[in-house]
């Protein structure tokens, strides 16, 4: 999610009752365009630069077996491996029975409901919106969607 823009005519075109769905429609459309672009680039031999996968902790170098820090390094590697296994277990369990989560932007104007890692719906606080709140609403939507994408899938 790079940016969300809500134009000045949003109130007349959508109103507060339809703007949340329009933001999700625009997000879906942007994702479709990005997927099409990736497919087209792939057909022409271009490989995208993907960000590195996140890690639980940085890799731990293990010194020589005769080194004084050998046992501590082995214990640290085992702790890291157990943490990775626990994270994988929590994700597997949460995918088996995911619970919906609601994430709001800092102004609480935009809320998004996520099931697992999939956006299910969005809504706005219609009582606190006006025709000139498009910029604030867009910022709140962007931050809520970014936070929803960043949150780990909770354990069940």
Radius of gyration: 22 Å
Sketch the major β-sheet: 3 strands, antiparallel
Helical fraction equals 40-55%
- What structural category characterises the helix and strand content? mainly alpha
Inertia-based shape: elongated
Distance between the termini: 27 Å
Strand order of the largest sheet: 1-2-3
Overall pLDDT level: 86
- Unreliable sequence segments: none
What's the order of the H and E elements? HHHEEEH
Q: Total helix count?
A: 4
The share of residues in extended strands comes to 5-15%
Provide an overview of this structure.
This protein has 156 residues and is mostly helical. The chain contains four helices and three strands. The protein has helices at 10-13, 15-43, 70-96, 134-150; strands at residues 100-104, 110-115, 118-124. The protein has a three-stranded antiparallel beta sheet with strand order 1-2-3. The protein is elongated, with a radius of gyration of 22 Å.
Topology of helices and strands:
Layout (H helix, E strand, L loop, with lengths): L9 H4 L1 H29 L26 H27 L3 E5 L5 E6 L2 E7 L9 H17 L6
Antiparallel strand pairs: 1-2, 2-3
Give a short summary of the structure.
This protein has helices at residues 10-13, 15-43, 70-96, 134-150; strands at residues 100-104, 110-115, 118-124.
Main attributes of the structure:
elongated; 3 strands; mainly alpha; 156 residues; 4 helices
